[in-house]
Amino acid sequence: MNKLxxxxxIVQELLISYAQTKPAYGEFExxxxxxxxxxxxxxxxxxxxxxRWVHHCTIHLDIRNEKVWIFNNSTEHxxxxxxxxxxxxxxxxxxxxYPPYMREMTDYAVM
Length: 111
Hints:
Number of strands: 5
Radius of gyration: 15 Å
Mean pLDDT: 95
Strand content: 35-45%
Number of helices: 3
Strand order of the largest sheet: 1-2-3-4-5
CATH superfamily: XisI-like
CATH architecture: 2-Layer Sandwich
Low-confidence stretches: none
Helix content: 25-40%
Shape: globular
Distance between the termini: 23 Å
């Protein structure tokens, strides 16, 4: 199977499973956003908390150059570990929220 298609399937299935969990507080909707042409994948929470409108991207992943880039994760899930368990090798996962010099100190890809 084509690596890109395989990673698209893994990322979508993972985010769909994460989106099943609603936040413990507030009246939020949880929405998955998949742009499969440009390979952008997100989970967004939006709704009311007390009397304040909240719109927050909780997870943002991209697939670039056959690697899964993690740009944002404000959940308790360790997305990188979950991706490895689903078959994505560590050398194909980039912790994009770290600067490159810090990525060199991880077991994951730098770029």
